[in-house]
Amino acid sequence: MHQETSPEPKHPPTLRKCVALLRSFPSFSALKRIHAHSLRTGVPISHPHFAKHLIFTLISFLPSLPTMPYALSIFSQIHSPDVFTFNTIIRGFSQSPNPSPALSIHRRMLASSTPADTHTYPFLLKACAKLMALREGEKLHCRSFKDGFESSVFVQNTLVHFYAACGLFENAHHVFERMPERNLVTWNSVINGFALNGRPNEALTLFREMMFEDECVEPDGFTMVSLLTACAELGALALGRRVHVFLFKKGLDFNAHVENSLIDLYAKCGRIDDAYKVFVDMCESRNVVSWTSLIVGLAMNGFGNEALEFFAVMEQERLVPTEITMVGVLYACSHCGLVDDGYRYFNRLQQQYNIVPKIEHYGCMVDLLGRAGLVEEAHNYIITMPMAPNAVVWRTLLGACAMHKTLALGEVAWAKLSELDPGHSGDYVLLSNLYASVGRWADVHKLRRNMLKSGVRKKPGHSLVELGNRVYEFVMGDISHPQSDSIYEMLEEIAVKLRLQGYIPRTTNVLADIEEEEKENALNYHSERLAIAFALMNTSPGMPIRIVKNLRVCADCHLVTKLISKIYDREITVRDRSRFHHFRDGSCSCKDYW
DNA sequence: TTAGGGTTAG
User: Could you give the number of structural domains in chain A?
Assistant: First the structure.
């Protein structure tokens, strides 16, 4: 390969010393000294004898400075960078918030016929994983094989991570299965791949496999975080507690990531007291993620005011909130109907914390206004937003319109959604509920026909309930469970008791009829009712019941669950797609406002 | 003188 043959610089050793100094005391002033020295001696900063050291030092030791544009400007002046220099600059970008230049630098590397080494592909695949650049990553997958890296455990591990990050956990698993050699990182990558892609049961199964089949690996903090994420997703409290005991025994509890995951686990299982206990025990290791997890957990569980109080304490402790913390704070305002507070926090987001509000923050404001019944104001907010509103924002407005029976604006939102995200079944459900709530039955039926004609199918609802060491899943009209007959008998018994309490079904959620027609028989029970019946049958009287649902609770099920909590004297917690409902003695913690 | 995996929202 052609090597640069520029003359030896006048004082490279002194400049090298400067770079060494920069490494020991990373600072702007050290960087300035290098520049001053370069100007004084006439040796360009990009001279190959030290440019690569400078780039390496910048990327490794000064990540908080606006390093990458500067490193890139030096890099682009190097005539023939070697593989180490290419790797370094690619690494820098793969670690930065915007890794896409890593891929263009790789193209330059290919054009210059510099062969990749075992370090190059992991950096590049990490960049692709961050960007979710599937096609680029797949090309790298092929290229890495051609270059003879199919047995490199580093490259293969990053491939597992890459496919999982792109949502293709099956591809990730395929790479994993073909690996001749695996280590802890391999297992963690594949377990996390399943945990992140809504397959928590598979994640837990793989963990068992790892423990039984691979004697060479011992789980670490990364493994625990993945398992806790999976348990939190499932709402599997008992299983999560077992993981907690396990990691405590293994001494993995002094790890901020693990402890933060524990806060999230307990909050997502509706056990905010336990979440708080972990938070209190953290002391030294507590960070902004811990606070954010607790604030979000409190808000989700219906303790909006407490969430805001904790936010105030966090500020007193001079911790700087992140944009996610602020989503949690706005979410808390929204679920408590605190409109003025919401506006105040939104303003402070920019003024005090210098956070550029993202579409999620604007979405929270639309939700806040919409929930509070200020639907017109919510619409004005959307049309004056500084960025183009996305489908989520319009959907939020449609939801608010359905809640407050505001037909005209609901149809405006629907029109936007038909352009931005046509065929989204949840939007049909919302619009249908809206039509039904104002008695426009002809429109309900027309919408249903359109939905069937265009092949849009309602997303199947499912509910999870944990019993013993297992998590049981129920879908609507489920007859697959071994106890199915008794479950339906139990539902009959419940129906009789409900009627005695004066229950009249709320039929506004008429899209449920679609399933009724499809099923031919009357097994149109919503999944949470099957789960509740199953739990009532299999747990001792007085024991609390916890259900996790993938969709929102419908008005009828909400009413039924309230009544069941009274009739059977049970505390029932339902985590739906966006929040918790704690039912007790005939009422719900959401105060019927969800 | 370089390599791979983690937590919070939607």
Answer: 1
